[in-house]
Design a protein that fits this description.
about 260 residues; globular; 12 helices; alpha/beta; eight-stranded parallel β-barrel
């Protein structure tokens, strides 16, 4: 079973190798030359928002067909009513790439989240240089000091930050840091199993209006979204269900419509 620690170790080695290929000053210059980011958090401010994800594979067993192209799928997501995109770029365990992000973002007008295991400020500058508008920080993957420095670096680069939490301690820390965008992941990082009730239990600890709440993992059909909506969630990150659908655009539209019909 793949562990979070294995993924983090691998990512650190890859970042060190990338630093040798593209020095920090050059990367910073590339980041500074990019147009202003699209507003990721603002796109989710209205409840009923869906972040549609492109993910080639995962340790849980998901594997997309090689014929799926990120640009074509991004256009389907935009037409289907997504408010934002999430592109997984981790290369070893999720088979992602930076090229996937660049291709998807260039095909649409939606803001794009780089979903990866961010462990170094180098990756923050890299994220901006790729043209992404937001990045993911996983509380359980970082010390408090690392989290604070990476989040500060992201904000300095104009990036929104989706702060992913997996347990009560993670959530309490994110709330104490006044993070405005919090992702509640139903997937256990040690087993990669999904507990659909996990996010609902965590939501009870969040004061109303304290943050924009994004529910992640285990969202397959329109009916899956309703309990979270009724409990106060604002947005939903959906990947595998859309990528496995015969028509991702139509499946996404069904989910958007289900949310729109809710009071």
């Amino acid at each position: 079973m793949t562990s979070l620690l294995s993924i983090l170790r691998s990512r650190r080695r890859q970042v060190d190798a990338q630093k040798a290929r593209v020095p920090v000053p050059l990367l910073r210059a590339r980041a500074a030359s990019m147009p202003s980011p699209r507003a990721f958090l603002s796109a989710l401010r209205m409840r009923r928002s869906i972040i549609a994800e492109f993910k080639r594979a995962s340790p849980s067993g998901h594997r997309a067909t090689d014929s799926i192209h990120p640009a074509a799928l991004a256009r389907q997501y935009e037409t289907g009513g997504a408010r934002a995109l999430s592109i997984v770029t981790e290369p070893s365990f999720f088979l992602g790439s930076e090229d996937d992000l660049v291709a998807a973002r260039s095909a649409v007008r939606l803001p794009v989240l780089r979903k990866d295991f961010i462990v170094d400020e180098y990756q923050v500058h890299e994220t901006r240089a790729l043209g992404a508008d937001a990045l993911l920080l996983i509380v359980a993957a970082l010390s408090k000091g690392q989290f604070r420095s990476l989040r500060a670096c992201a904000l300095e680069n104009g990036l929104d930050v989706l702060v992913e939490v997996h347990g009560e301690a993670d959530l309490d820390f994110a709330l104490s840091e006044a993070c405005p965008l919090i992702g509640l992941n139903n997937r256990d990082l040690s087993t990669f199993r999904v507990d659909s009730g996990h996010a609902l239990r965590l939501m009870k600890r969040i004061p109303r209006g304290a943050a924009c709440i994004v529910v992640e993992s285990g969202l397959r059909d329109p009916d899956d979204l309703i309990p979270y909506h009724q409990a106060g969630s604002d947005a939903y990150l959906i990947g595998q269900a859309l990528m496995r659908a015969t028509s991702p655009q139509d499946h996404l539209r069904l989910m958007v419509t289900a949310l729109e019909l809710e009071p």
